[in-house]
Design brief:
Elements (H helix, E strand, L loop, with lengths): L6 H19 L8 E2 H7 L16 H13 L2 H6 L1 H30 L6 E2 L4 H14 L5 E5 L12 E5 L2 H13 L3 H17 L5 H5 L12 H34 L7 H12 L1
Antiparallel strand pairs: 1-2, 3-4
Helix pairs in contact: 1-3, 3-7, 5-6, 5-8, 6-7, 6-8, 7-8
Length: 274
């Protein structure tokens, strides 16, 4: 149980916890939520659209979000860090714009100003990841919770069936209900964006875009090509040097195996003495 092969998930969890604690200690939590009537219409603080997902404003949401991200690190391990980081970046941009736009243009006017609040936190991004987890990762086992206390008459008796993935969904579902209806709006938008990204229904430039390799510690193609060229050259040199041994052995074997007579051996010893 670790962040093995999941550096992006580790960064997300540590960054979320650190920024949430810093916002609390520095008493700046009031900068990380959106009230349409006050922040958008009156003071024109449009920058809040790009900051409200940076951190949560209470410890319960931080705990549930960190646990949910950690439990869904399998997505990064299956995709690779570069694709996962690209997915998080694209969904962060889309979910930063769409929920405030829907709240400002559609939901607030229809609710006569009652629906005005969008809470802080990356709940939309988290639910985009949940959509991928639901589609990609299979369940290991299922279990049923009986609705009655008596012994079941048949295997198909009344009850609720869950899988081992249910606890992951429960963590995310809690985040969607913490500060509803605003948090529920963000969760719904995040799920839809994740579904559209998976089914390649977003514009091609967004679906195919990837972060630079150095962001996730991948060497550039140029340096990789230089390394491969050097490796091939070294292999060629080692191959040519090792190829000399069979040639020398063949030449030695090709020479006639001459035997020296006793007289030639005595003459050689006499020459050596003088």
């Amino acid at each position: 149980m670790s962040f093995t092969n999941a550096p992006v998930t580790r960064t997300l969890v540590l960054g979320l916890v650190t920024l949430s604690i810093a916002a609390s200690l520095l008493d700046v939590k009031h900068y990380f939520y959106i009230s349409v009537g006050t922040h958008i219409w009156r003071y024109r603080q449009l920058w809040r659209i790009f900051t409200y997902q940076i951190c949560y404003t209470n410890s319960s949401e931080v705990l549930f979000a960190a646990m949910a991200l950690y439990n869904m690190r399998a997505i990064e391990q299956l995709w690779g860090s570069r694709k996962y980081a690209s997915f998080v970046a694209v969904t962060s941009l889309l979910t930063a714009v769409i929920p405030p736009f829907l709240l400002t243009v559609l939901l607030r006017p229809l609710s006569f100003g009652v629906f005005d609040f969008l809470p802080a936190g990356p709940t939309p991004i988290l639910f985009a990841i949940v959509a991928q987890y639901h589609a990609i990762v299979p369940h290991t086992y299922k279990y049923k919770v009986a609705l009655s206390t008596g012994a079941p008459a048949t295997l198909e008796s009344a009850g609720l069936t869950f899988s081992d993935k249910s606890t992951r969904y429960l963590l995310a579902f809690q985040l969607a209900l913490f500060q509803w209806p605003g948090s529920l709006l963000g969760a719904a938008v995040g799920w839809v964006v994740g579904y559209l990204w998976r089914n390649e229904m977003l514009p091609g430039a967004l679906a195919q875009w990837r972060v630079p390799g150095w962001v996730v510690g991948i060497r550039s193609q140029k340096r990789s090509g230089e390394f491969e060229g050097l490796q091939r050259r070294l292999e060629g040199e080692s191959g040519s040097s090792t190829g000399m041994a069979p040639r020398i052995q063949t030449m030695a074997q090709g020479e006639p195996n001459r035997r020296r007579t006793m007289g030639q051996q005595l003459m050689d010893e006499v020459r050596g003495a003088f």
